[in-house]
Fold:
Amino acid sequence: MSTTTTAVLVPLLPFLGALAGLLTGRRAPGFVRPLAVLPTAAAAVLAVVVAWRQGGGEALDAATRLTPTGSVPIDLALHLDGFAVLVAVLVGVVATCVQAYSTAYLRDDPRYPSYAALVSLFTAAMLLVVYSGDLMVLLVGWEIMGICSYFLVGHYWETEAARTASLKAFLVTKLGDVPFLIGILALAADAGTFRINGILTAVASGGIDHPTLIALLLLAGVAGKSAQFPLHTWLPDAMAGPTPVSALIHAATMVAAGVYFIARLLPLFTASAAALVVLAVMAAVTMVCSALAALAQDDIKRVLAYSTVGQLGYMTGALAVGNRGAAVFHLVSHGAFKALLFLGAGVIIHAAGTNSLAAMARMSGLAKRIPDAYWTMTVALLALAAIPPFSGFFSKEAVLGAAEHAAEGDATGIPGAAGWLVLTAGLLTALLTAAYACRLWLMAFRGKGPDAADHGRQPAAMNTVLWILFLPTLGLGLAAGKLPDWFDGGSLTPTLTTSVLSTGCALAGAIVMYAAWRRTVALAARTPLGAVAADPDAAPYVSEEETIATHEAAYGDIAAAPDPADPARALLGPLHRHAASGFHLDAVYTALFVRPTRAAARLAHFLDREVVDAYVRGAGTAPRLLGAAVRRAQTGNVQTYLSALLAGSVVLAVAAVLFATGTGA
Structure:
């Protein structure tokens, strides 16, 4: 089987699995799990085969005309290079792990068949984005992911949080997709093609007339899909979905799509210095603000969600300094350890019966109850904090090294200001990342209080997946010397200056957090928070659903709750309240967009009811009044009719005489 045929099967198999799952889920429930896992696993194996054959060699392109349009044609095009095949392997492996994990996590969920089918469709859509060589076909996968995220985030639709989060995710990403579509159409109009290779050729020859405008339009869509400032607010709320969905969205699909899109079209962005500076500012603000927000969150999944936003900021920062190799390296590395963190968090939530770190800090022995999650998450948090020799260290250093080169003016065509922005924000974020990673580990696994309930070992499928993802988390950094052959050839090995600075920042952040925790941990016993567990003896999906539904009611608004046992509150001081609420961006959007929109809707409703409907009601009222007046004359009395006839005759006779007299004069 040729490489092209094998690559076509990679997105096709999960799609067929999703179709079969939707058609047979209720009629043949015994086939649901095989249809969920096997096609996705087969796609992952085929993606590895494609990567092995491509081997970082010359890009492979294949295309067939999909449909004539009368102007710019649309091709069903395939583009395989080092970036595409490695990202496809990441998507396939993480999606397979999520499907296998879900068979145990949601084993008794009555909506599991539709859930599994949507995850398979989600996977197929992302693989279509990765392998596509035509922007319109890529857009199809891009939008399918948006629809799937709406249904998957709202899986627990009985809870208000899930319904609101799914709608918010859909609307915010669509807000970015509108200019994104306009940008694609404008780009095709300038280049004369939707094919990515043709567009890059036009960019190289100077055939794009408006590179800055097009780049900024495309950047809006990327900001929405990859949760970058200011369109990142949907991602933390998306934690209302099942934990495996969070792992899929945050690690391998959707949020990675925007970064990958810019990497594919990076020459277009480097053609505009203004676009690069905007991208650098967006990355810097995203990194720092999301790290501060993660430091102040109580929900373990929201900590990881804001962490994802910040790590995506590193990726867009690497793109802003013109190094897509570093960006995709961090995308792959982050995909492995972030999937491990989210799936491990699912184990913790089930074991503790809560997603509240404040509650976990008031129970002891949790690490002993879930040893698999404890050891694997410890390594994943070290990778997140970029501590050597774990994978996150090497990929993050590649980003910071690229920013250092740009800041020193060694990157051709890249503004030095962009390099300094990314480098400074990256080092500050390294300190904050280590701090919140340390806080999560201490509060989850080093709590003080009554022993955590022992529910026995977690299902083997869940623990096995954690150890599978543990391997790339531990050893992917060793690929830093080989990946340049698969990418653009630029070095990805750490540089001495940034390595020392970033590792020093990470260690400083962890040490300061540990010192603050030592001072505050004793206060946990004196400040109980009320209810701790939400049905911990139930199945994992039931425990999580009930935790989501009761968390706010049990613990209140953590931004205002005076919990002296939280070391982050002691470190952030007055800033904690603002960071915990995401710096009030939702309130800003409510004031700028939601309230004016609702006011406009009320005005339109008033005008429709009181003005437009008034004309309609008037058109019916006038004949009705006339009819009422005529009806009064219809009495049925003959004498009345004769009197009216006589009176009318007299009036006509007098009028005729007067008219004749006037004419004669």
